[in-house]
Structures are given as C-alpha cells and as structure tokens.
Write a structure and sequence with these properties.
By secondary structure, the protein is mostly helical. The protein has helices at residues 9-36, 44-74, 80-112, 122-147. It is 72% helix and 0% strand. This is DUF4149 domain-containing protein. The chain crosses the membrane at residues 55-77, 84-104, 124-145. Keywords: Membrane, Transmembrane, Transmembrane helix.
C-alpha cells in the first residue's frame, strides 16, 4: 500500500520557498544594490561590476528556488491559485535571465570599458520586474500560509478549534 503525501506539504513547501525567496529579493534588489551606489568612495564602474557579479549569482540562486517552487506547486493539493502565481513568478525569472540581465550586462561592460551608452529603460524595467516578482512572491507565500490555517489567528487552528 502506497503512503499518501500529507495534504499540508505542498502549502508548507510553497510558503517556505516563496517567503525565503522574497526575503532574498528584498535584500539583494531593494537594499544592497541601491546602498552600494551611495558609497562615495566606490567608483561607478566598480559598483556596476559588483552588481553584475551579484545579479549573475542571484539569478542562478533564483533558478534553484524556481525549481523548488515548481515542484511544490506541482504536488497534489497545491491549488490553482498557487500554480498561477508560481507560473507568473517563473515567467519573470525567465524573462530576466534570458533577456533583461544579458542586456544590462552589455551596458555594464560598456561602462567598464569606458564607452558608456546613452540612457535606456532597461534598469527601470528591471526594477519594475523585481517589484512585481516581490509582490507575486508575497501573495504566493500568504496564499500558502492561508492554506495552512494561518488566517485562524494565534492559538487557533484552521478549523477554529483552540490549538495546543
């Protein structure tokens, strides 16, 4: 007789992956990156090169989270809403990795080589994409936590019965 997967496992894995990933997006994209450009002794080409290396590594880390998220929402009982939100997050990761980051890398390389290009909309688009991804990850984490009974409040279970 085959063992059945606990019903709460997909929601727990989804909540964990989405929340940790969200924390990393906030830390890398919204804290560390802008602060780096506030350092007066850090030359622009160096700051851009550090950013390129950081986002190159972070993109690979995000692919790991994307696989974990795809597995967690692919499990039975994950729910349609979680699958749709996860698909949207994965689409952002793919667009960033395949098109947007290479375009930004080319611009950074031009600055490092002393041939800065005219202003473009790529950085703004990346900021918008990161913001959208963060909102989607927050919504996904909250949805998964709700499926686990989080809306019941402290000391109560999803069924409304006082917890242990």
């Amino acid at each position: 007789m085959a063992k059945r997967m606990p019903v709460r496992l997909p929601a727990a894995l989804t909540a964990l992956a989405a929340a940790v990933w969200l924390g990393m997006v906030v830390g890398v994209s919204f804290l560390a990156t802008p602060v780096k450009f506030q350092a007066p002794s850090l030359a622009l080409p160096v700051a851009l090169e550090v950013g390129r290396v950081t986002f190159g590594l972070f993109s690979r880390v995000e692919w790991g989270f994307a696989v974990l998220l795809a597995v967690s929402v692919g499990l039975p009982g994950a729910g349609r809403g979680a699958r749709l939100l996860a698909a949207a997050v994965l689409a952002f990761v793919a667009v960033e990795a395949i098109w947007l980051l290479p375009a930004l890398d080319a611009r950074v390389e031009a600055v490092i080589q002393g041939r800065p290009e005219p202003a473009s909309w790529h950085h703004l688009l990346y900021a918008v994409a990161e913001t959208a991804k963060a909102v989607l990850l927050a919504a996904l984490a909250l949805l998964a936590l709700r499926r686990l009974g989080w809306e019941a409040g402290p000391g109560r279970t999803a069924a409304g019965v006082p917890g242990d």
